[in-house]
Amino acid sequence: MQKGNTKLLVAAVVALVLIVALAFILPGMLREPEPEPVAFRVGVVLSTGGRGDNSFNDAAIVGLEKAVAELGIEFSYQEPAEVPQMEEFHRLFAQEKMDLIIGVGFLQADAITKVAQEFPEQKWAVVDTVIDLPNVKSLVFREHEGSFLAGALANMMTETNNVGFVGGMQIPLITRFKLGYMHGVEHVNALRGRNVTVQSAYIGTTGAAFRDPGRGKELALAQIAQGADIIYHAAGGSGQGVFEAAAEKGVKAIGVDSNQNWVKPGSILASMMKRVDVAVFDAIKATKEGTFAAGATSFGVKEGGIGLTDLAAVTDVEKAALNNDAAQIALIQAMKDAIPADVRQLIADLSAQIADGRIVVRSE
Questions:
Q1: Domain ranges (residues) in the chain
Q2: Separation of CA 240 from chain center
């Protein structure tokens, strides 16, 4: 074969190889890149008092952060200073087409009811109130059950036979806390032949009642002056004042909604855990998995949504909140150690009786 023909043959083979290679490579090069997965977005409107209340709002944030870690969601939140702002924040989140909007607290009811009807395709979850709309999931709690346990504990631990209750507003929700607490005190009076009495007071008549620690302290001091040596609060951020009064006067307090035992170590006997974090996480998970359902879901002792903090051992939550400060942790442990074993057993027994229906706690 002549040299010129050989060169032509080689060139033809190379060209053929390039054509075949390009046939495989070009489609991949020309194909549009796969779009980045879109995150599941949650918008949250906190209750008045905002983040850092060591109570209701912070419990919701715990549930949201768990959803970030376990479900890969993204969330943003708004902190209304006043109730009228809530409607604006819900509308903004709806306009952003969040996958789920969560309203924390009963004060959200009017805002969500109005805005949810304007955006019927948008999904909402609301904590602590029931809204009967096809795009709203209501997350409610049987607070009276946990408050019963708080009352039983207060009865067994008081040295003056006089305990107190400080509520935020005199509304059905907070009244359930009070009635459950009183029922727990009365139940143990009958069970153990005791004669413990309950004082009660409310801070105010508007949402501001849940962010007025000065008034909370004033009411707690008044109850202490009248003989109360254990005071249970259901007052949101105003409960800080109750804790301050207890610490100053050397008496005990019982926290609410989240684990507040670390707020004033050595002064807080226990906390009534209202697992807003559990409810918020469950609502996000259901929505993300496509099983969102409107209507009310109730959380109580039976569901693990209500109960007292550990009465025997310091928890990881308490340690973390105190940055593992050994001296402060020791104060919490000393408070737990002061609760006799038979009292811890009584609380466990009463919890079981509530869970299986043998005790039906008064709520109205």
A1: 41-141+278-299, 143-274+310-355
A2: 17
The CATH code for residues 143-274+310-355 is 3.40.50.2300
- pLDDT tens digits for 154-182? 999 999 999 999 999 999 999 999 999 99
What are the phi and psi torsion angles at 267 (to 5°)? -115, -15
Just give the CATH number of 41-141+278-299. Answer: 3.40.50.2300
Contact by Cβ (8 Å): 47, 280: no
Beta strand pairing call for 162-169 and 136-141: unpaired
Q: How far apart are CA 301 and CA 354, in angstroms?
A: 7
- Quick: pLDDT tens for 278-336: 999 999 999 999 999 999 999 999 999 999 999 999 999 999 999 999 999 999 999 99
**pTM score above 0.90:** no
Integer Cα distance of 267 and 265 in angstroms = 6
Q: Which has the closest alpha carbon to 108: 66, 68, 73, 79?
A: 79
The 10 Å Cβ neighbour count of residue 142 is 22
Return the residue matching tokens 């469950």: 282
* Burial (CB count within 10 angstroms: exposed 0-12, middle 13-18, buried 19+), residue 72: exposed
